[in-house]
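Exam revision sheet. Question 4 asks you to relate a sequence to its structure. Input first:
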Amino acid sequence: MGAVKDMIKRWLEIVPAEDHSIKIDADMTHLDSCFEYQLWYRGSASELEQFYKSITTAHDDSIRSKFWAAVPSKGNKLRKIHSGLPGLMIDMITSIVISDLNGIEVTSPNAWDDTWQEISKDNNFEDTLAQAISDVLVEGDGAWKISFDKNISDYPIIEFYPASRVKFEKERGRIKQVTFTTRYYVENTRRAYYLEEYYTKGRIDYKLFDDLGNEVSLSNVPELKDLQPITWTDDFVMAIPMMFYKSAKFKGRGRSIFDRKTDCFDAFDETISQWQDALRLGRVKTYIPETMIPRDPMTGTIIPPNPFDNQYIATKGNMAEDSKDKITVDAPPIDYDGLLTTYINTLDMCLQGIISPSTLGIDVKKLDNAEAQREKEKATLYTRNKVIDALNNVIPELVKNVLNVYAALYEMGMENIEADITFGEYANPSFEAQVETLGKAASSNLMSTETQVDELWGDTKDDEWKKVEVERIKIEKGIAQGGDEPPAPGEFAV
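Answer key, structure tokens:
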């Protein structure tokens, strides 16, 4: 019996796996990825084709098999069409967020609000914010840069640098330094230089590099020769990072909404190009014997084909004894249903998790009722909320630091400044639907008058207006001036 047990143990013995050395070559650096996403946003078919053909290597089959890297066989031509969908997605999300922006104001102390409004107007801040949102959605992250130049403005200058021009240095998970890179081209020497500005708490340093990466004197660029390091004693930084999503590929950096979607975009463009190619090859062809070709009644010469009203292919007549010349029309079949299904499915893959088709004006499911439209808007709502959550954290901090810079420059007393950015609602039910819903809640005594007014008007009316409206409704209902609600059915007022 014991021998049998030992045999079973040997049969069931599990040998531990050995460690393997696995090496995976990354296809692109962070800077390369930013450039790739920029091209998708720009939407130029020529630029996309040049980019993917330039990064194709002999051993990288995954890139060579992409539609935009494909090379047709010798003697053939391949028309490549870009849908423009990536750029449309970015512009639509940005437009939604900016259109919902109610305003930015300094809540404490209130005296600083006028100063901020002047600074905002001087910097055209709303347009800068819109561009910043687009840049972060495309490249993944970026940083706000605060500077001051009396030759340009008496106010602090607010700029946004996208991820391709920003580097972050972290210490224990906290951003310790933000580096901004700016390219300068000197006409006299025909050389390019790169200025790196190092922003840390209480200090700004500058270094200039040539196109080979060697540090050179700032005097090589005439407009930079007077730059000097800047220091201050107050506890604030003149650079504010901003990102909406975190990248799993590049630790410490943000993630573009194009990340994990470029293959889908490539397939979508291939679907559209294939569809148009099928339509081109499937055109109706008319074959006319020479004896039946249209001729000029005056001269008898053959009327040349016209692609709009007189297109045909000439053939020789049949000389057989019993044959008759006749016109032949050939219309190759086109699988419209298959192409349409592929188009819809590929489009869904491109938009999944980012934006709904109805936001872009696409109704691929043919659902026209209001409830279905609101359901499809949820993907857009989630993306919008993610962007707004980040802005609610970053913009107040930016406003605070901008005003601190302004106070330090003009030797004004520093204060504990608090700012607020407010947004309206998106994809709410219609006004009529809200009135109906709130009316049912009011008739059932499930909602107070104050709550009804607040829910109905939201941020479109201020608190003072709402207060007056509540008092008016109560007077019309005959509610006592004390503000008590009417008794519920079956109860008696005391």
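Marking note for examiners. Confidence is low (pLDDT under 50) at residues 487-494.
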